[in-house]
Amino acid sequence: MNRRGAIASGHELTSAAAEEILLDGGNAFDAIIAAHFTACVVEPVLTSLGAGGYMLAEPGGSSCRVYDFFTQTPQQKRDQGLDFYPISADFGPTRQEFHIGRGSVAVPGCVRGMFEVHRDLGSLPMRRLIEPAVRHAREGVTLNTMQASILDIVSPIYLASSAVVEVYGSRLQPGKTLQEGETFRQTQLAATLEALAAEGDRLFYEGDIAAMIAGQCAQGGLLTRADLAAYRVERREPLRINYRDAELLINPPPSSGGILIGFALALLDQLPPGEPTCPDRVGRLAEVMAVTNKARVEALADRGNLLEHLLDPELLERYRREVMEHPYCSRGTTHISVVDGEGNLASMTVSNGEGCGELLGDTGIMLNNVLGEEDLNPGGFFRWQPGTRMTSMMAPAILHTPRGRAVLGSGGSNRLRTAILQVILNLVDHGMSIEAAVAAPRVHMEHGTLNLEPGAVRGSLDGLQSELGDLRPWPDRNLFFGGVHSVWLTGDEYHAAGDPRRGGRGLVV
User: Fold this and answer.
1) Cβ atoms of 323 and 333 closer than 8 Å
2) pLDDT tens across 156-204, in order?
3) Do residues 206 and 196 lie in contact, with contact meaning Cβ atoms separated by under 8 Å?
4) Contact call for residues 228 and 206 (beta carbons, < 8 A)
5) Number of other residues whose CB lies within 10 A of the CB of residue 72
6) Cis status of the peptide bond prior to 254, with omega within 30 of 0
7) Whole-number Å distance between alpha carbons of 109 and 53
8) What is the pLDDT of residues 338-380, one digit of tens each?
9) Cβ pair 392, 54 in contact under 8 A
10) Mean pLDDT throughout 447-471?
11) pLDDT for position 378
12) Mind listing the pLDDT tens digit for each residue in 292-338?
């Protein structure tokens, strides 16, 4: 079999779009662009044309680069007279508050990001790359279990207005969002995608769509045409982290997810790996997670942002001592990973927040609510500096090990960094296959509570409870713990692992 690459994403049709492009002769960057446009159709809560994100690109034989097309703060700021209000999302064992409305919309970056990546690295026409997304939007897709569940969790957003209900409301159960098995059509979005393919990204940032965004935000929002026209994709060098015998390339500041993963790995680097489910090892990992959260808060308080000073050796040693002195001894985000037969690697994480709760005219687009994401505004809402790139937990990554290379990343709000961290540890410390590394049970420490998936700890939880206090065992694997969709390349052998927690699908082409 002539191997053309591997793909992992959060939906079988997202992966299938990338497969279609690889089989048509496209490269990994063509494939990931097609996959993202398709994700906008089939994973609508997690990403959209109004979203933002990042991509790590490592062309075969060339150095890695980062495309930052995350959201930008508006150039004007006020906290009065805004359409900005909270909703509560029900995750089952826990609830989380999000703010939505026109005042929650930041400058979107995904459309410009896709076109910039295409201009730099693409090989097939953009019209061809958008075809799968147009087809699914116009013909409709059957809503799967995962997407129906995600819609239900954030249903207050997708039942916020009659226009949104027209697209996302259930025909079988009025008053609820679309149910599993229902057909989901988006004819207006199909037309918008075709217009972008024909006219390019200027349509979104300077043309008719820009005018619609500014017009909508004139009542209760903040975005203007000047905000959209000024938006640029930033190209950056990846953050490079050495961990044991591996090198991790990951999203750098101003995004905070990559630096926090690097900080946690630096704390762990001089400690014995331990057995994956050993209570001592899980307790140590929980302490590292807690200390990482503490370091983030302290860094934000001291500096106002999170920069490389977190990897300063003296600071690391102080936090490492906190871990060693412990009694233990030895949010709407999706990710796509692609590798092709030429050795090109692409890792992309994107987020629409959860959506602002309103469709943009007749475009079928729901813009982001990133200004209403508490995780991205830890100092409080509307304290951001105008006209600046926002920070994020998103951390698309490429891992080089003696055994092979992994492309990985995750959705999951502030849980994504602990999900990625644990997959890296599974690959490097425990020598797992990519499939086993992604499937292994996870833990997440937050606000003094250790959340545990079934099987994360061998034996009794009593010891952990006595040392850590609040434990929250979950009954099943859950999307709360992220979705690390990953691919693996060693020599000419490919593997792909879509995370089952978020309906992931891996394909070897």
Assistant:
1) no
2) 999 989 999 999 999 999 999 999 999 999 999 999 999 999 999 999 9
3) no
4) yes
5) 25
6) yes
7) 7
8) 999 999 999 999 999 899 999 999 999 999 999 987 765 656 7
9) yes
10) 85
11) 59
12) 877 776 665 554 444 456 666 765 565 455 444 432 222 578 999 99
Radius of gyration, alpha carbons of the chain: 21
Q: Which pTM value belongs to this model? A: 0.92
How many C-beta atoms lie closer than 10 Å to residue 387's C-beta? 15
Report the SS3 class of residue 96. strand
Closest to 173 (Cα-Cα) out of 185, 182, 184: 182
* Residue 63 in tokens: 């150095």
Q: Specify the amino acid at residue 396.
A: P
85 residue type, one letter: Y
Report d(CA 262, CA 240) in Å as an integer: 8
Q: Is 66 helix (H, G, I), strand (E, B) or coil?
A: strand
**Amino acid in position 470:** D
SS3 281: helix
398-430 burial, b if ≥16 CB within 10 A, otherwise e? bbbbeebbbbbbbbbbbbbbbbbbbbbbbbbbe
Triad 10, 16, 18: Cα angle to 5°: 90
Instruction: Considering the candidates 14, 333, 349, 401, report the single residue annotated as catalytic.
Output: 333
Q: Token pair for residue 116?
A: 């910039």
Between 7 and 415, where is the model more confident?
7
Q: Can you spell out the DSSP letters for 128-158?
A: HHHHHHHHHHHH-EE--HHHHHHHHHTHHHH
Active site residue 333: yes
Q: Token pair of 197, please?
A: 């393919």
Asked if residues 434 and 404 have their Cβ atoms less than 8 Å apart, the reply is no
Please report, for the chain, the start and end positions of each structural domain, with discontinuous segments joined by +. 15-235+334-376
- Give the pair of three-digit tokens for residue 264: 């946690």
| Structural tokens at position 92 | 């089952």
Nearest to residue 438, comparing CAs of 393, 482, 402? 482
